[in-house]
Known about the structure:
Layout: H1 2-18, H2 28-31, H3 33-43, E1 49-53, E2 62-68, E3 71-77, E4 83-87, E5 102-104, E6 108-109, E7 116-117, E8 123-125, E9 144-148, E10 151-155, H4 164-175, E11 183-193, H5 197-204, H6 210-213, H7 235-254, E12 262-263, E13 272-277, E14 308-313, E15 317-321, E16 325-335, E17 338-348, H8 359-385, H9 400-417
Helix pairs in contact: 1-3, 1-9, 3-9, 5-8, 5-9
Keywords: 2Fe-2S, Iron, Iron-sulfur, Metal-binding, NAD, Oxidoreductase
Cofactor: Fe cation
Family: Belongs to the bacterial ring-hydroxylating dioxygenase alpha subunit family.
Amino acid sequence: MSQSISAQTLLTREMLARRRPGYSLDAPFYLSDTLLKADMEHIFGKHWVFVAVEPQIPEPGDYITVDFGNHSILIVRDDDMQVQAFHNVCRHRGSRLCASHQGQVGNIVCPYHQWTYDLTGKLIHAKHMGADFDPTEMGLKTVHARSLAGLIFICLADEPPEDFEQMVAQMTPYLAPHRLDQCKVATMVDLVEDCNWKLTMENNRECYHCVTNHPELTVSMYEFGFGYTPDVQNAAEQQRFEDITTASHARWEGMGLPSKEIDVLDERITGFRTKRLPLDRLGQSQTMHTGVASKKLLGEFVDPALGGLSFWTQPNSWHHFMSDHIVSFSVLPISATKTLVRTIWCVHKDAVEGVDYKLEDLTAVWNATNAQDRRLVEESQIGIATGAYQPGPYSPYTEGLVEKFCNWYVKRLTALTL
């Protein structure tokens, strides 16, 4: 085992040392099982990872399971309405406790020998174990879980990064008015992409490709909101966007909605970025008609034209909060060349499908965009695997956020493998 770990560390360090700032990563970062193990151990194993939204577990006993790498995590709402997270593994002989992605339980009962745990993970029943057996030592193994205004993050490390609390303090005023805790899940779609998880994230961190590849998305969204810097080729269009943004921010901030950009994507261990962005045309929602998808607005909102609050987190999520609905995305590695992209659409808990919203209207833009992005990242994966690939330069005008993702990734992996 020590030989394997040493080989993994040596390869990781070698690849990290070769990384050229401003350029994409070397091919092994997208192809190597050894480097995926490093990602799972040091990136997904030691950072806060977005996995779910609270409306997925609205009542005591509601649970979901989240799988990535070789981990299976059980997330449950306890009787005090707190979010609990455990390794989805019985303490008796290792059986998986809950096989379904979601469900409802009174207690957590192992299907093998019926060891029974309460919703806080305490072992409360285990028959035939003898007089010397101490159930207090056999509770479920806990996982750190934290909710940020209804977004559930977990951390597998014994000591999770403390700067999560800084993100909570800064982001709660932005997210809280949308009242995700008063929403319900309208639908969830899982998409498996035949690519490395980092290609999925890099693709998300730029809109260089948007105009030519995402006709549905760019009906409402301006490409300039995603890390653009001044470029003589689009100076007039970008200035128009900046003028619209400045006016919109003044209006929204006057309504008590924080809107200005916060960008610490590669400055903190728990990196993130947010900005409330204007939407084009009617400016109400990310729909094909740019009007709201749901007539039942979120929280206390009465004005539907609140743009789209975008929120990106390292290493694996992005979110769009609008006046009428919220879309959350999580990226979870399956293998070195296979990635799960999970998209969750939430609407007001009292919104009625077919009356207040139509599911096709709600999901049309992102279902189309996700399918288009899947094609793009899979073509990149194929090209990288040919052997002809070598790292290429990022655009200084349109791919600054991609560089920040890669810079964060390289810095974190370097710090954790030294």
